[in-house]
Amino acid sequence: MKLLLVPALVVLAVFAAALASLFRWSLLEFIPGSLQTGGLTLANFRGVLAPQYLGAIQDTVVLSALTTVLTLVCAYPVAYALARTPSRRVRSVLLVLTLAPFFTGAIVRTYAWVLVLGNTVVSWPVPMLFTERGVLVGLVHFSMPTMILILAAALSHIDPIYERAAASLGASPARVFRRVTLPLSMPGIMSGGLIVFAWTLSAFPTPELLGGGKVKMIANVVKDLGLDSFNWPGAAAFAMLALALTLALLTAVGRLSTARAS
Amino acid sequence: MRPRIVVTVLVALLILPLLGVPARAQNALVVSTWGGNWKDTVEKVIGKAFTAKTGIPVEYEVGGTIDRLAKARVAKGNPLVDLTFTTTHVARLYISDGLYEKLDMAKLPHAREIAREALRSDYHVGSWAYVYTIAYRPDLVKEDITKWSDLWKPSLKGKIAMPDFDPSHIITIAALMEGGNEINWQKGESRLRQLKDSVAAFFSTDAQSQDLMKTGQGPVQVMLSVNAYHLQEQGIAVKVVQPTDYPGVVGIDTMAVMAGTKKADAAHQFINLALSREIQSELVKALRAGPVHPGAVVPANLRGQPGIFLSAAEWKERGYIMNDEARAKNLPGWREWFTANIVKK
Q1: Which chain B residues are closer than 8 Å to A3 by Cβ?
Q2: Using CA atoms, how far apart are residues A112 and A141, in angstroms rounded to an integer?
C-alpha cells in the first residue's frame, strides 16, 4: 500500500525542487544584457517593491475580490434554478449552457470578449475594452461555470422541507431565502468563493488580452519581467513575493470560512 | 502480486511519455525558428534548397523567442538544435552565455557579399531585415500620417497601439527627436510622457498587434513592417509610412551555429546558402522583408517600401540601426521606465 504513495511523493518532490530553484533564482544578481547572473543579493526583492509592481499586486487582490463577489451574485440564481427546477428539460438546458464554456478554450472565450467589449458588436456608454471593467467582465464569465456547479451541488443537498416549513410558519419567500436557504448554502458559497478567488489571483490570459497591456495582474508582471526584460531573478523574486501573499490571503480566507461554517 | 502491478504501472507511466517524443533522423540538421509563417518560409525557401543541394534533411524546432532561448540555456553544451534564428539583440544574450559557436567565415563565402550591417558579430549574421515604423488604417484615421512627430498630434489621442514587450523603438525615436539616441535615451523622456494619453492599447505579440489593427482598436501603430505587409495581403487597408523626419528603426533577424553541435559544417552550409543572392531573392518575396544581400531581386511592388533596402547605403539612409549591445543591456531598464511612466494608469 505504501507504494501507492510514490506518485504523490514524486509530484511533491518535483514541485519542491521547482520552488527551491525559484527561490535560488530570486537571490541571484541580475546583470542586464546578459544571461549570466552575479552573486547572492536581496536587491531583486527591493526591486519588486517598486510602486508599479506593488500596484499590480493591489490590482490583482481587488480584481480577485470583485470577481469572487460578482461571480457569486451572478451564479447563485442559476445554481438555484439548476438545483430546484422540477423540469428535467430546464435542468438539462441549464446544465448544457453552464458547461458549454468549458468546451471552448480560455483564449477563444477571451477573444470573443475582445470583440464584444470593443464597440464592434455593442456600443458601450463607457470604455470597456482595455480597462479594469472589461477585465472584470472576462474574469467573471470565466469563473461562472465552476461557481454554478459548486453552488448547485451545495443547494441540492439542502432538503426543501426546511424551506417549506419556514413558509408554512408565515415567512415570506425573501425571508425564507435570507434565514434558511442562504445560511444552509454557506459551505458551497465559501468553497466556491475560495476556488474562484484563488484562481483569479493567478489569472493570465484574461488580463493579458482584455487589459491591452494597461491592466497588469501578478502573472502578467512575472511574464513581463521574465520573458520580456530577460530579468529571470526579478521574475523569480516577484513570483516568490506573490506566492507568499497568495498563501497568506488563502489562509486568512480559509480560516474565515472555517469560523463561519462552525 | 499487488506491489508488482503497481511498479509495472509506474514504470509504464514513466516510459509512455518518452515514446511520444518524436524521433529525429540521425543525420538531420535541426533548425530553431519561430512558428507559423516564419517556419514555413525557412522550410520552403532555405530548408528544401539545402536538402536538395546537400542531401541532408532538415528538421525544425519552433517556439517563441524567449522559450527557445530558455531551452537552449538548459541544453547548454549538448544543444538540442544545431542552428538558431533569432533577433539580433536577443542573439547577444545567447552570446553572453556562450551558447553560440564562433562563425568560421571561410565556410561562409556568401557572407562577403552581404550588407556590412548584416554582419552582426563574430557569432551571428543577419538573415533578413525589417523596420518598426508607423502603420495606420486610412479608413479609420482621416488625416495623413507622414512623420514620427505626427504621433503626438492631439487628434490621434486614444488611437495608437504600440509594443510594451519591447518599447525600444519609440524610446529611441523620442530620444532622436530630442537630439539623443539609444545610449542617452533619457533626453526623450518628457516627450514620451506626452504620448501617454494617446495610447489605446499595448501589445505583447505580433498576433495581438495584427488583431488590434484588424478590429480597429489600435488603428495607428508602431508596427513591424512585415506584419503590416501581411495584413495588406489579407485585404486590410493598412498604410505603411516611411517617416520623413526620422527613419524607421531597423530590426534584423539573425542565424547562428549552436556551441557544441556536432553538425557545425552542415549549419555553416545552411547559413551560407541562406545568404546567397538566389535564396535572398526568394526570401524577399515570401516574407516581404528586406534582403541582406544587396544584389537580391526585389519585386517592383516592394521596391522603396519601408524595411526593404536595395543597397548597402540604404541600410543607413532609410533605417536607424540600434546598437545591439546597448539595446540588450538597456531593455530591462527601458521596460521598467516605460511601465511606470507610460503604461501605468
Answers
A1: 3, 6-7, 10
A2: 11
Q: What is the CATH number of the domain that holds A129?
A: 1.10.3720.10
Each residue's pLDDT tens digit, B168-184: 999 999 999 999 999 99
pLDDT attached to residue B128: 96
How many CB atoms neighbour CB B244 within 10 A?
11
Q: Which residue of A has its CA nearest to B4?
A: A3
**Residue B6 contacts A, CB cutoff 8 Å:** yes
A69 CA: distance to closest CA in chain B (Å)? 24
Domain span at A128: 63-216
Interface with chain A: mutation pick from B66, B202, B336, highest number of A CBs within 10 Å = B336
- For the residues A10-32, what does the mean pLDDT come to? 95
Domain that holds residue B123: 26-129+251-320
**Per residue in B115-163, pLDDT tens?**
999 999 999 999 999 999 999 999 999 899 999 999 999 999 999 999 9
**Which one of B168, B204, B344 makes the best mutation probe of the A interface by having the most chain A beta carbons within 10 Å?**
B204
> What is the pLDDT averaged over residues A15-40?
93
The interface predicted TM-score of the complex, written ipTM, equals 0.74
Residue reference for cell 526591486: A47
DSSP letters, A92-104, are HHHHHHHHGGGGS
User: B201–A214: do the CB atoms touch at under 8 Å?
Assistant: yes
Q: Residue B126: what pLDDT?
A: 97
DSSP letter at B24?
P
The pLDDT of A104-120, averaged and rounded, is: 86
Q: Evaluate whether residue A16 is within a structural domain.
A: no
CB contact under 8 A, B201 and A212: yes
CA dihedral over A182, A187, A190, A193, signed as positive or negative: negative
pLDDT at B20 exceeding the cut of 50: no
Q: Which CATH number belongs to the domain containing residue B227 in this structure?
A: 3.40.190.10
- Beta partners for residue B29, in sequence order: B58
* Cβ atoms < 10 Å from Cβ of A208: 23
- Asked if the Cβ–Cβ distance from A230 to B332 is below 8 Å, we say yes
Q: Among the residues of B75-188, which ranges form H helices? A: 88-96, 168-177
What residue has cell string 426546511? Answer: A162
The shortest CB-CB distance from A118 to any of B164, B165, B217 is to: B217
- The pTM of the full predicted model, rounded to 2 decimals, is 0.81
pLDDT at residue B187, rounded to an integer: 96
B3: pLDDT strictly greater than 60:
no
Could you say which of A7, A34, A216 has the minimum Cβ distance to residue B96?
A34
Residue A214, min C-alpha distance to chain B (Å):
6
